[in-house]
Structures are given as C-alpha cells and as structure tokens.
C-alpha cells in the first residue's frame, strides 16, 4: 500500500481523531464526592414546634381557591378543588404571635371518599439561624384525623438533605373564617456545618 503521508503524520492524525472521540463522546456529568467537600459533618435531628395560621376569608385572606370541578361544590369532600396559600407560621396560637416563617404552596382535594388533600408546599423560615432556609412538604393530609402525618421530603440552607415528618393537629377551626394548626416537625438534616 502506497504511503501518501509521512509516517509521523498518521500518528498525529490518529491521536487527534482519538481526542475528538473522547471529547465528543464523553458523557461524564456525575462524580462521587467525599461528604466533607460540602462541609457535611454531622446529621442533626431537629424538632420544630409552631402554629400554622390560615385566614380563609376577609381582607387578609391567606388562602385562595383557584380551581374546582362540579363535584367540588356539591360534596363536603371538595373533590377536585385546588387552593394556593401563603399562610403565616407563628410561635404561638395568638393572632399577633411572632412570625417564624410562611407556608407557601398548594392543596388539592384528591380523595373521592373522604376530605383529604394532597399538600405540596414549602415552609420558608425567617427567624434566627433558620432565616432563609426552607423545608419541602409533600403528602396526604386527611383532615378528619386528630393528628395527620405528612412527609418532609427535602430542604435548603440549614435543612439541606432534609427528611422527616410533620404532625399536624387542628388547634382551632372556624368554618370559612380561620384554621390554626399546631405543628410538630421532626427532621434529620445536615446544613452547612461551617455556618451552622
Ligand atoms: C388585616 O391586616 C391589617 C394589617 O395587619 C390590619 O390592620 C387589619 O385590621 C386586618 N384586617 C382584618 C379583617 O383582620
Ligand atoms: C362553585 O360555587 C361557587 C360559589 O357558589 C361558584 O362561584 C362556582 O362557579 C361554582 N363552581 C362550579 C364548578 O360549579
Ligand atoms: C393583635 O393586634 C391588633 C392590631 O394591633 C389588635 O387590634 C388586636 O387586639 C391584637 N390581638 C390580640 C389577641 O392581642
Ligand atoms: C432574614 O433575612 C433577610 C434577608 O437576608 C433579612 O432582610 C431579614 O432582616 C432577616 N430577618 C431576621 C429576623 O433576621
């Protein structure tokens, strides 16, 4: 076979083609890290206790129903209704008690035999070292039960890598006026131990 190019040119071209192949085909987007590179030292278990204030009607209403289906109106289970909320989280049950955060997100009445809602929301905290940190809540809340357990599925800031559960107890409910829930949260989390 006749050699058209000098031998060393073949070697250079081969290396060039191989490097293109590596760059073009590389699919690496995930690498394993030692936990200390994110300052993750000790997983902590934290208990949070506060009251969730929902104002259902009036000038300072904090929950709005944004969608409903014909059965939502005709049954006491509100099946199909969707609400959006931005409710205050307060240290105590009093209406002027210090605000420690807000519950922001959605409810969907999604059980066609009992009044149960899918809650998809964020607790955004505003006090102390928790200021700016969030917890994500996702799960089923069957309103008729005395204590409802809903999972905590994640978090940010102090609550990085969060997992846990929250117990929800109705403290006060006045139909169409106000709902105050007593909240107990149990959450495992790391946070950034350089800061917290
Ligand atoms: C709504 O909130 C404002 C400001 O906090 C307050 O002055 C007002 O009395 C509240 N209105 C009702 C109906 O609670
Ligand atoms: C449900 O009832 C409300 C208030 O009575 C009304 O405004 C709304 O149109 C009704 N929605 C449906 C889907 O029937
Ligand atoms: C809460 O604050 C409002 C406005 O300052 C006041 O009118 C109301 O009486 C307070 N409520 C309580 C329970 O202290
Ligand atoms: C929480 O953080 C925000 C933004 O950094 C800041 O404006 C606010 O004053 C802080 N609140 C408290 C109670 O520290």
Overview features:
binds 2-acetamido-2-deoxy-beta-D-glucopyranose; AOC barrel-like; about 200 residues; mainly beta; elongated
Note down, in words, how this protein is organized.
By secondary structure, the protein is mainly beta. It has a single domain (41-189), classed as AOC barrel-like (Beta Barrel), CATH 2.40.480. It is built from two helices and nine strands, in the order αββαβββββββ. It has an eight-stranded antiparallel barrel with strand order 1-3-4-5-6-7-8-9. The N and C termini lie far apart (71 Å). The structure holds 2-acetamido-2-deoxy-beta-D-glucopyranose (4 copies). One 2-acetamido-2-deoxy-beta-D-glucopyranose (NAG) is lined by residues 94-96.
Topology:
Blueprint: H1 7-25, E1 44-55, E2 63-67, H2 70-74, E3 82-90, E4 99-109, E5 116-125, E6 134-142, E7 147-156, E8 163-174, E9 178-189
Antiparallel strand pairs: 1-3, 1-9, 2-3, 3-4, 4-5, 5-6, 6-7, 7-8, 8-9
One 2-acetamido-2-deoxy-beta-D-glucopyranose binds at residues 94-96.
Helix content: 10-25%
- Would you count the extended β strands for me? 9
Ranges where pLDDT stays below 50 over 5 or more residues in a row are none
Our Rg estimate from Cα atoms comes to 26 Å
Mean pLDDT: 89
Q: Which topology does CATH recognise?
A: AOC barrel-like
The level 1 CATH classification is Mainly Beta
Structure ligands: 2-acetamido-2-deoxy-beta-D-glucopyranose
CATH architecture annotation: Beta Barrel
Total of domains:
1
Distance between the termini: 71 Å
The strand order across the widest sheet is 1-3-4-5-6-7-8-9
Q: What is the molecular shape?
A: elongated
């Amino acid at each position: 076979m006749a050699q058209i190019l000098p031998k060393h040119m073949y070697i250079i071209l081969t290396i060039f083609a191989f490097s293109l192949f590596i760059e073009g085909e590389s699919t690496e987007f995930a690498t394993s890290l030692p936990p200390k590179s994110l300052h993750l030292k000790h997983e902590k278990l934290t208990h949070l206790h506060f009251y969730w204030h929902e104002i259902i009607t009036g000038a300072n209403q904090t929950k709005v129903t944004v969608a409903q289906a014909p059965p939502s109106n005709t049954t006491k289970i509100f099946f199909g209704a969707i609400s959006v909320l931005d409710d205050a989280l307060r240290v105590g049950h009093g209406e002027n008690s210090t605000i420690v955060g807000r519950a922001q997100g959605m409810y969907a009445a999604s059980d066609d035999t009992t009044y149960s809602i899918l809650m998809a929301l964020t607790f955004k905290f505003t006090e102390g070292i928790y200021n700016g940190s969030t917890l994500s809540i996702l799960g089923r809340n069957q309103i008729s039960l005395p204590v409802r357990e809903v999972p905590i599925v994640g978090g940010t800031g102090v609550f990085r890598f969060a997992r846990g559960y929250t117990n929800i107890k109705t403290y006060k409910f006045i139909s169409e006026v106000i709902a105050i829930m007593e909240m107990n949260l149990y959450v495992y989390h790391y946070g950034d131990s350089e800061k917290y």
